[in-house]
Sequence to fold (967 residues):
Amino acid sequence: VKRLVRLGVVLLLLASLTGCWDNRSIETRDLVLTLGVAPAPHGNLAVYLQSPPPDTLTAITQAGGGGGGGPSAPIYVYGVGKTVDAALVRAQASTQRDLYLGQVVLVLLSSRLSARQFQVVLHTLMRLPLIHTTAYVAVTPTAMNTFMTFSPAETRLAPLYFETLFTCQQCQAVSLQEPLFELERTSITPGRTMYAPVIMPLGNGYEVDRIVAYSAGSRPALTLSPAQTIDLGFVLGRTVKASEHVSLGDGARASVRAITAQTHFATTDVGGRLHIAVDTNIKGTLANLEGHRADSETVVGVEQAVASALARKMLAVLTALQRKGADPAGFGEAFLWNHPEYLARWHTLYRRAAITVHVHVVLQDLGATS
Amino acid sequence: VWPFSHKAPASPDKDPVIPDRLHAMPSPTHPAPGETVMDELREVQSTLIKLWRPDKSVLDELVTASASLVNLLDSVLGEMRRGQRSLDRFTGSVDAAAKRIQSVLGSPPDVVVRRFTVGRKLRWPALLAYDGGMVDSSVIDRDIIRLLELYDLNEQDGVSAAEIHDRVQYSAQAIGHVTTTRQWSQIFSQLASGSAILLVEGTGQALVLDASKRPSLPIGPSASEPSIKGPQESFSDVTITQLAQIRQRLRSPQLRFDSVTVGSLSNTTIVVAYMDGVTNPELVSVIKSRVQSIQRDTVQRVSEIVSYLTNLHSLFPLVRITDRVDWAVRDLANGKILIVVDNDPFVGSLPCVLLDFYQTSQDYVFSPWEGSLVRIVRLLGLALALYLLPLYIALSSVNPDLMPTRLLLTVQAARLGMPIPPVMEVIIMWIIIEVLREAANRLPKELATTLGTVGAVVVGTAIVKAGIVSDIVIVATTLTALGLFTTPTFEMTAAWRWLFWVMVLGSYMLGILGMVLVTVFIITYLAALEPFGVPYLSPFGPIRLRDLKDSVLRAPITALKQRPFYLRPADIQKEVPPPDWPSLDPVLDSGQKESHS
Fold:
C-alpha cells in the first residue's frame, strides 16, 4: 500500500508540474507562417504576423485543392514597439487567439530597416524561445502591410510556396535559401558579410531572382540584378542550372546550358596587399551551336569563349561588391583565419585587394548538336 | 452460546462422561445407534413443525443429510465390528461398500452402482461402480458384467474369495489397464477419474479397471493461431491424446513426460514435458518442484499453473500458451519445457522471451525472406500501435513545432470546429475500440464479423459526421488497432494495451519527451525481466549474435544449426553436418570438376 501511495504521489506531482493543464490544441492557435519586421515611425519596429485563413486551411486538405471561389486574403496582425519583444506583445494583445511562432516558415525583413535595427531584429529573433530557427529569411522593399495582404491567384498559401522554393535545390537557376540561423551566424563572423534573397510581389506571383548583399555593419550595400545573382552564384556554389550564350566570331554562336560550378579561392598577402585568386571549374552541356560543326576544335573554342565570358562577368560582380565593402563569398573569413592580425584593418585591406578570376570550362555532353 | 454470548462456558467441576455408544451392537432386538439418532431427529422435526412451522424443505434437507451421516456411521461401525483397524480400508463386504459409496457420493445421476454375481453356478456377490459419463458403456456391459456373469470355466464348489478375485482380475486383463487397491480414498479418486471399480465379496482388494472413454474436443485446425500453410493440428483437451500428439512428432526416447497430480478437489493431471539430454536439467528440476508444491483445490487451465511458476506481477506474459502442436514440439526440440494440463487444449511453453511472442509457425513455412518480412511487419505494427496516437497528441497539443508545416496545417484544418481536445478524442476512440473488441470476443463468430463492420463503418462515419472526432483520429485509431492485431499471440496484446494508456498519459503531459521517458521505462522494465534466469530481451539484451539468426530476421533453415543459447540447453547443436557434405547438385558438381581437371 505504501508503494502505491508513493507512486500515486509521484504521478500527481508529475501531472501538476508538467503544466499539461495549459496545453492548447493547435486549432485554438493561429499558426504564424510569415513574420515580417519593418521600421515604424519614431524609431519603432512594427512586427507583422501572418496566418493562413480557415478556408485556405480547409482547401489544402481537400484533394486537388481546387473548388469555387478565390482564396481569402491572409490574416495578419501587427504590433508596434521599441523592440521586437514589445511589438510581439502588442500584436498578441490585438487578437484573442494564441499566436504560435513555432512554425514560422518565412522571416521577412524590410530593406528599409536601419543597420542597427537589422542587427537588433536578427539577434532578438534568434533568441525568441519558440521561433523556428530553420525559418528562411528574405528581404523585401515592398511595404510590409502590402506584402501581408498580397494574395496572388496562383499561390494559395505564400509561405508554403517559399518553403518549397527554398527547399528545392534545383528549382531555380540560383538556390537562394538562407535560413535564419545561417544569417545570424554570418552576421557575427568576422570577415564575412550577409546576403539574403529579395522577394517582390508581382501581378500573379512573386519575383525571387536576386539577392541583396550587405556590407559590414549590416547596411544594404548592393542589390544584384538577376544576371549578377547568377554570376555571384558561381562563386558561392549556388548556381545550379545557368545558361550562357557566346559568340565564336564569324557569325557563329553557341549556347551552353545546365551549367554547374565549383569554386575555390585563395587569399594571400603579397607585400601588404591582399590577392584574391578565384578558381572556378564549370561543367555544362552544349545546347546549341550555330555556324560550326561540333568537332573537338570547335568545342574547345566554345569552352574557352564561355570561360572568358564568365570570368569577366564574375570579376565584374566581385569588384562591384568589393567597392561597396560587401564580402558574401567569405574571402575575409578565410584570410583572417590565417592572419588574425589584419582584423582591425580588414576593410581597408579588402577594398584595395587585387581579385583575379580563372574559369575552366568542360563541356561534358554535346547534347543535340552531336 | 456462541455467537450470542461472549462469555466463556463455565468449566465443569468434573470431567464429562461420554457414553460408549460404539459398543451397542445392532441386533434385531437392539437397534443400531444410528436408528436411535434418526428416531430422535424425526421427533425433533415434528416438534419444530408444531411449534413455529419452519420451512419444510429446509427440514427435509436436514433430515436427508442426517440420513447420509447415519448411513456412513453405520457402514463405518460395521467395518469396525469386523476388526478393521483403518477406516480407509475396504473390508470385503459388498453391502457395506455399497452403503459407503452411497453415503460418500450421495446419489448423483452420473455415478452408477451395479450389483451382480460372478459365475453362472457360483453366483458370487460383486459390485461394479463407475461414472456413467466417463466410461465406455459397451465395455462395462459386454466385457465386464456379461463376461463375469457367464463365467463357468473350472467352477468348483468351495473356491475361496481370493481365488475368485484372482480369476476375475485375470479375466479383466482383456479390458485394459487393471490395478488393485485397498484404500477407499484411492477408490473414490479412481472413480472420479473415470475408472470402473470392481469389488468382489470377501476380498479386501478392489479392482480398478481402466474403461474410461472421456468426452473430448475434436482435433482440428488451431483457431487462436491460424496458419495459411503448414501443419494445422491443434491440441485435444485430453492429456493422453495431447501426449500422443506430441510423441507422434517427437518419436525419440529422450522425450519425457513427468506427471504430477494437483488439486485437492479436481485431482488434475499436470504433465511436465521436456527432452532429456536437450533441456537444461536444472530448469526441469525447478519447474517440477514448483509444480509439485502447488497447493490448490482445483486446477482448470494451464494459465493457473503458469501463475504459480512465474512472477505474478509481471505485466508481460512470461509463458507462451499455444494450442498448436507443431509449435509446442518446436519449443520442446529447442530445449523448452511444456506444461500440459488435463482438460485444457492449450499448453504452456517456457521459458519465453519477448520475441517468442512475435514468432509463428508460419514463419518457417515460407522462404526466409517472407518469414523475416512478416516478423518486421509485426514489430512495425507494434510500434504503430504504441506510438501513432500518442504522437498525434504530442504533436497537436504539446510540440506542434516538431511537425512538418504542411502536415500540421492538415491536422489543424481537420480539427477546425472540434469541441474536444486531441487527448479526449483519442480516449473516446480507444474506449470504443476496446468495447467493440470485447463485444466481438463475446459474440458468435458470424455476429462478430457484423459487429466489426458496424463498429468500423457506422460508428466511425457517424462520429465524424457528428463532429466529435476528426478524420485523422479515425485513421490513426484504425491503424493503431490494426497494428495491435499484428501481434500473433493474444496474451501479449494485453501488456501493450495497458502501456498504450501510459504512453497517452506521457505524451499529453510531456509531449515527445514524455513518450521518450515511457519508452525508456518500458525498455528498463523488459530488461529487468528474467523468467527462469533467461533475459526477456534475449537475444538483444544481452546481445548474442548467434541467436540473432532466428529473432527479428529468420535465417534459412539450413543456417539454424544450433538451439537458442539463452535457453542454456544441455545440447546446443541441432544439426551436425556429416564430414563429407554431399553436393546439392551432383551432376553440376561433377561437370565442374571435370571441366577444372
Q: What stands out?
A: Chain B has 17 helices and ten strands. Residues 1-5 of chain B have pLDDT under 50 and may be disordered. The interface with chain A takes residues 396-398, 400-401, 403, 405-406, 408-418, 421-423, 508-510, 514 of chain B (CB under 8 Å). The CA atoms of residues 37 and 43 of chain B lie 10 Å apart.
